[in-house]
């Protein structure tokens, strides 16, 4: 009887996911006989991999512009054709096949896009590597994962030559040497019969730029990614827009997920190898960009540079770092209610979204869980926390490969849920400070400091303290030409925070350090 109930439950779940698939296909205008035929043909020819996505997009959007980068412009048909030719070369010249591993040490550009599609069609696993990593970390990855081919940007040649990597490698762009940009266009080998493959996985390596990287695998699947895909369509209203700018790096996962989503929707995608506020604003104005993906620091820099260039934006998708309430208010005031806050992790993918209305109600919320996400807030004893109680976020969903084993993912993020069902971040588990027996969360003091009219930015870290165990240190960046003393700021704080939240030390700096991913570099601040 137990097996029968399990089978019935599984059958019901599959039926619900099939209904969700139909709903998404309907939204994408693919539920017509022609649309379904295109989808079935693509799956039959390519299997379940990202090349299948390129085939569907090419059959639906053909000569529309797909990708614009610093060096070239590709239509959807050109993306498919060049990726197919490149996949054949990768099979013939580099002997890539199912089970092989291809590392990508690339910034955002068209060569990265087409070579990821091509590698996926060979059945190889795709390893997205952080271009800001140290030599030591790169060597650790080479030792741990035994890559069969490395596709890389020319500017990173020095890192690779100093490393222990000794297998095949291929440049992303070059005028004379073999490189993806030349081979994807010029390779004239005979067209081999297509061989379907669904074995390719996308591997994200987490753990920063200096620590030991942790492997996180994702496998393309229509069913697995339906809930986040459908939610993005509805909550962000992406079907209404034509042009998107991905400012976030694709190796971080967030940028890659949105790239694949925009290709599926037939949107024009603008990418650049390096984010610069001046260039980003110019691109948004030139291409009349409606959707942009950013980390909060990028958004802050663009607003300061030239807000008039951003008037075409109807959807700003912020993620990857905490969104400051002060920045939320500034965006609402200057651009209207166009800001969304997305919360996800490399392992668990997208899990919560805060809409502009959510942020208007609670500027520091990360929103509510999307459909298909189970989220628990657990204390140190692994017991569920009540509303307002801080604990660690633990997540279960359908689209994480780890969740296939029915395991919960401990995110390492601390936060709580309020009575209204909104969730809030309180930082990382290793950020928490225990001062005189009280759990103190640096992010809470950071948010209070940011309310001061003379403070541009603030970061808070823990310091050892003989009397209390730990105390807080506040690092403060003032607005241009402002003057503020430690005594005056301390006096202002006393009426706004608890005694145990008062910083032992306040340091004023010219500029607060950030990592390349837009997070405060607290390791550097603590030195």
Task: Give the arrangement of secondary structure elements.
Layout: H1 2-27, H2 33-46, H3 50-61, E1 65-68, E2 73-75, H4 76-94, E3 101-105, H5 110-121, E4 125-128, H6 135-145, E5 149-152, H7 157-162, E6 168-171, H8 180-186, E7 202-206, E8 214-218, H9 226-235, E9 243-246, H10 254-265, E10 268-271, H11 277-287, E11 291-294, H12 296-306, E12 315-318, H13 325-335, E13 339-345, E14 349-354, H14 356-361, E15 365-369, E16 374-378, E17 391-396, E18 409-417, E19 423-428, E20 433-435, E21 438-440, H15 442-449, E22 455-465, E23 469-478, H16 486-494, E24 505-509, H17 522-525
Parallel strand pairs: 1-10, 3-4, 3-5, 4-7, 5-6, 9-10, 9-11, 11-12, 12-13, 23-24
Antiparallel strand pairs: 1-2, 7-8, 13-14, 14-15, 15-19, 16-17, 17-18, 18-19, 20-21, 22-23
Helix pairs in contact: 1-9, 2-3, 3-4, 3-5, 3-10, 4-5, 4-8, 11-12
């Amino acid at each position: 009887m137990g097996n029968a109930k399990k089978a019935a439950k599984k059958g019901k779940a599959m039926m619900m996911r099939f209904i969700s698939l139909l709903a998404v296909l309907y939204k994408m205008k693919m539920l017509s006989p022609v649309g379904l035929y295109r989808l079935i043909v693509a799956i039959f020819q390519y299997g379940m991999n990202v090349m299948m996505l390129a085939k569907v997009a090419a059959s639906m959007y053909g000569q529309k512009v797909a990708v614009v980068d610093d060096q070239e412009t590709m239509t959807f048909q050109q993306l498919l054709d060049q990726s197919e030719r490149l996949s054949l070369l990768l099979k013939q010249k580099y002997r890539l096949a199912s089970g092989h591993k291809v590392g990508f040490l690339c910034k955002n550009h068209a060569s990265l896009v087409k070579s990821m599609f091509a590698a996926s069609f060979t059945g190889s696993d795709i390893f997205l590597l952080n271009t800001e990593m140290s030599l030591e970390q790169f060597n650790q990855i080479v030792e741990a994962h035994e890559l069969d081919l490395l596709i890389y940007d020319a500017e990173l040649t020095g890192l690779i030559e100093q490393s222990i990597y000794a297998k095949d490698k291929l440049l992303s762009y070059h005028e004379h040497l073999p490189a993806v940009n030349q081979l994807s266009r010029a390779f004239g080998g005979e067209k081999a019969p297509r061989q379907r493959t669904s074995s390719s996985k996308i591997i994200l390596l987490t753990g920063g730029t200096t620590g030991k990287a942790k492997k996180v695998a994702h496998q393309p699947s229509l069913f697995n990614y339906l809930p986040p895909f459908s939610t993005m369509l509805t909550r962000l209203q992406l079907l209404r827009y034509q042009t998107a700018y991905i400012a976030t790096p694709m190796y971080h996962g967030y940028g890659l997920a949105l790239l694949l989503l925009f290709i599926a929707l037939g949107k024009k995608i603008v990418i650049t190898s390096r984010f610069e506020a001046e260039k980003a604003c110019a691109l948004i104005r030139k291409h009349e960009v409606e959707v942009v993906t950013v980390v909060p620091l990028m958004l802050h820099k663009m607003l300061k540079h030239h807000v008039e260039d951003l008037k075409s934006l109807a959807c700003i998708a912020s993620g990857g770092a905490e969104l400051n309430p002060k920045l939320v208010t500034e965006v609402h005031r200057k651009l209207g209610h166009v800001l969304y806050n997305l919360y996800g992790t490399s392992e668990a993918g997208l899990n919560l979204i805060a809409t502009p209305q959510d942020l208007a109600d609670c500027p520091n919320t990360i929103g509510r869980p999307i459909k298909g996400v189970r989220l628990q807030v657990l204390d140190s004893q692994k017991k569920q926390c009540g509303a307002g109680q801080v604990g660690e976020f633990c997540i279960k969903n359908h689209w994480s490969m780890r969740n296939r084993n029915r395991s919960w993912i401990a995110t390492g993020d601390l936060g709580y849920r309020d009575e209204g069902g909104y969730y809030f971040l309180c930082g990382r588990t290793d950020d928490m400070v225990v001062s005189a027996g009280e759990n103190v969360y640096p992010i809470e003091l950071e948010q209070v400091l940011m309310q001061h009219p003379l403070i541009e930015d603030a970061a808070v870290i823990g310091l050892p303290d003989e009397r209390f165990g730990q105390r807080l240190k506040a690092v403060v960046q003032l607005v241009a030409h402002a003057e503020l003393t430690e005594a005056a700021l301390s006096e202002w704080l006393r009426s706004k925070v608890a005694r145990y939240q008062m910083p032992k030390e306040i340091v004023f700096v010219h500029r607060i350090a950030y990592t390349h991913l837009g997070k405060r570099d607290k390791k550097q601040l603590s030195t």
